[in-house]
Write a structure and sequence with these properties.
Elements lengths: L8 H17 L2 E4 L4 H14 L3 E6 L6 H14 L2 E5 L7 H4 L5 H20 L3 E3 L13 H7 L5 H4 L4 H10 L25 H16 L5 E6 L2 E6 L4 H6 L1 H10 L4 E4 L14
Parallel strand pairs: 1-2, 1-4, 2-3, 6-7
Antiparallel strand pairs: 5-6
GO molecular function, one term: sulfurtransferase activity
Protein name: TIGR00268 family protein
InterPro entries: LarE, Ni-pincer_cofactor_biosynth, QueC, Rossmann-like_a/b/a_fold
Length: 273
């Protein structure tokens, strides 16, 4: 275990517990999105289990292409075996109909495929990057993880979101300050049926925002309306980029483009529940 880290005593203890827990696993498949949590989990699992770990990333329609490419780069830097699979959540009616428990069907599809890989390749566990703070949020995917016996080592060791970022920084992971990400299905109001075309429309819209230099953003889909949630300190950038945003989003099929004055916030679609 890396010991020359500038960590609080409490976080050092959590890191030690995480290390011990992973050592006991023996071998594992890690559900790897390239986000802050799963990158830290993959890094430490690689440090502990050496070559007895496999990172698996889904390339479904709900994952932005830019995030998939970033996951490939991160896995290569960590030096871990990495497999890309395709999961088709849209074939599941519960996911496609976009009910509030949509994430259950997504994670059920993903974890089922990961267990198939684990069985085929001889890995004893499937791990995901959920942390302790996720327990207090509305996350139906956690139920799928529980049902399919997927382990969340960061959560078990008591890692909060801030702990994950602090340890990531000390371990030299570039993701320590990466903005929070979520699959593209989270951009739609519950009850709005999902399709590959709608999801691609949102992805291309967010590509516009990314190319303009926004660091934290969501394009929420409301039919003909694109509601933009941006970091409050980047609202001026939105005003300065107004014409380009309007032109390019209208070319994608949106008729009205609105700026949400509440700014970016995670899970804003849950506010209607």
């Amino acid at each position: 275990m890396t010991t020359n880290l500038n960590l609080s005593e409490k976080l050092q203890d959590k890191y030690q517990e995480l290390w011990v827990n992973l050592k006991e696993k023996g071998s594992a498949v890690v559900a790897f999105s390239g986000g802050v949590d799963s990158t830290l989990l993959l890094k430490v699992t690689k440090d502990v289990l050496k070559n007895d770990v496999l990172a698996v990333t889904s390339a479904s329609e709900t994952i932005p292409t830019r995030e998939l490419e970033h996951a490939k780069e991160l896995a290569a830097k960590i030096g871990v075996s990495h497999e890309i699979i395709y999961t088709n959540e849209l074939k599941k009616e519960g996911f496609r109909k976009n009910s509030p428990n949509r994430c259950f069907y997504c994670k059920q599809e993903l974890f089922t495929e990961l267990w198939k890989i684990a069985a085929r390749e001889g890995y004893s566990h499937v791990l995901d990057g959920s942390n302790y703070d996720d327990s207090g949020d509305f996350r139906p995917g956690l139920e799928a993880a529980s049902q399919l016996q997927v382990t969340s080592p960061l959560k078990e060791a008591g890692f909060t979101k801030q702990d994950v970022r602090d340890l990531s920084k000390e371990l030299g992971l570039i993701t320590w300050k990466k903005p929070a990400k979520a699959c593209l299905s989270s951009r739609f109001p519950y009850g709005e049926e999902l399709s590959a075309d709608k999801i691609k429309q949102v992805e291309r819209g967010e590509d516009v925002l990314d190319e303009l230099g926004f660091s934290q953003y969501r394009l929420r889909y409301h039919g003909e309306v694109a509601r933009l949630e941006l970091s409050l300190d980047e609202l001026q950038l939105a005003i300065d980029s107004r014409e380009k945003i309007i032109t390019e989003l209208k070319e994608l099929g949106f008729k009205y483009i609105t700026l949400d004055l509440d700014g970016y916030r995670t899970g804003s679609m849950n506010e209607t529940l």
